[in-house]
Write a structure and sequence with these properties.
By secondary structure, this protein is of the alpha/beta class. The chain contains 8 helices and 33 strands.
Length: 424
């Protein structure tokens, strides 16, 4: 019989609605990051770097690109005969067919998959965080404490604690209480959504709570284990960890990669981040081009000037165009003599000549100010922006826009331009 000490279950089904048009056609874990990666590459690379060679990836929302990216797991050395990576979408059963309704419900629906490996421990991960963590060290800690459940946790500024699930522990780091997004937090130790369970404990908790609507770890499974007397411990992590759940945090995390001394280093030899590589030609920087403090992906051609930006693979930036403080994703073509400031331009976008993005006074976005803010300009994938137009800040464009969509060749700050037929 197969027996694995620890298997991982990676939750990658999220829509990521706070990323706006970036996740209209693609699951959040499949969004491009850092010039050549996708967000899911980070937890997958952590698994293989931590000697976890069996990973179930739970998908649901817009899974096509995610499934294509993961394939049979070759880039992460997860193409194994026994174990390896398995994509686990919701599926039709003889008695019922249902979508995953909560994080723990997704795990519950895959009990048979986990049972097939007869694991001692199950590692639960989220597919949408940027970090490096050695899960073997966390497992050693779990064993040393005699824990049945261990939650990875990190200290956060107390004024931000109300955004997180907060853990209250004794001097031995055993968790005595949980507070989900408390108004007046009594601790600054925040749960990172990374859990190690003894498999017996997890299986019993999932089955006992199976009828809970939107079965969730923080709301149902962990409180159940706690009330049953299972020893639950906090494993404190002090490295770099970023939840890229909003456009601004996503933009910030990309910009932090190009700091002179980056807090999060993509170039460490001993902890590589692996990704699917399409074997593109090398990038080309023309004689007239200028590039400063930027990441330029493979196969990109730069004829303009790029400052403090993250440029994906297969991107073309035309002569005379200035790109500053921006993220340009794969296979996007930007015309000549344009200007882009604080832009997030998704994949396969075409931008005409002499287009200016991110100009003028800042105004609040008219439809979704909680998503489109901090002066960013966001252009969704496969969109088209015609030549000779200017676009303000806190704006969003999606679809094949035409000249007549820009009165006087201008889209003012705070406007939302979604073409009919392109809405979600």
């Amino acid at each position: 019989m197969i027996k694995k000490e620890m298997i991982a279950m990676l939750l990658a089904g999220g829509q990521g609605s706070r990323l706006g048009v970036l996740t209209k056609k693609v699951a959040k874990p499949a969004v491009a990051f850092g010039g050549k990666y996708r967000i899911i590459d980070f937890p997958l690379s952590n698994c293989i770097n931590s000697a976890v060679d069996t990973v179930g990836v739970l998908t649901q929302y817009q899974p096509l690109r995610l499934n294509t990216h993961i394939g049979i797991g070759i880039p992460w050395d997860l193409d194994r005969n026994i174990g390896g990576v398995t994509v686990l979408p919701p599926y039709e059963k003889s008695t019922s067919s249902e979508w995953y309704t909560g994080t723990a419900n997704a795990i519950y629906q895959n009990i048979d998959y986990m049972d097939s490996f007869n694991p001692e421990y199950v590692l639960i991960l989220s597919g949408d965080h940027i970090y490096k963590m050695d899960y073997e060290v966390m497992l050693d800690y779990h064993k040393s404490k005699g824990a049945e459940v261990t939650l990875a946790a990190m200290p956060v500024p107390i004024e931000e604690a109300k955004r997180f699930g907060i853990l209250i522990t004794d001097e031995n780091r055993q968790i005595t209480e949980f507070e989900e997004k408390p108004e007046n937090p009594r601790s600054n130790l925040a749960s990172m959504g990374i859990y190690i369970f003894n498999w017996k404990t997890l299986k019993e908790a999932l089955i006992a709570n199976a009828n809970q609507p939107a079965l969730d770890f923080g709301k149902h499974v962990i409180p159940y284990c706690h009330s049953n007397g299972s020893p639950i411990f906090a494993y404190e992590y002090n490295g770099y960890w970023k939840d890229v759940g909003t456009l601004h945090s996503y933009w910030e995390a990309n910009m932090e990669l190009i700091d002179l001394v980056p807090e999060f280093n993509l170039y460490e030899e001993y902890w590589k981040i692996y990704t699917k590589n399409d074997r593109l030609p090398p990038q080309y920087i023309a004689e007239s081009a200028e590039v400063e403090k930027s990441i330029i992906g493979e196969g990109s051609e730069i004829y303009g000037r790029v400052y403090n930006s993250v440029i994906g693979c297969g991107v073309t930036i035309g002569e005379g165009t200035v790109v500053r403080d921006s993220i340009i994703m794969n296979d996007t073509v930007i015309g000549k003599y344009g200007e882009i400031y604080k832009g997030i331009i998704a994949e396969n976008v075409r931008i005409g000549d002499s287009v200016k993005l991110g100009v003028g006074e800042e105004r609040e976005n008219e439809t979704d100010p909680h998503i489109y803010n901090n002066g960013l300009v966001t252009v969704g994938e496969r969109s088209y922006v015609p030549a000779n137009v200017s676009v303000g800040k806190n704006t969003v464009i999606f679809g094949e826009t035409q000249e007549e969509d820009y009165p006087d060749h201008y889209l003012p700050s705070g406007r939302t331009l979604m073409k009919a037929g392109d809405e979600a």
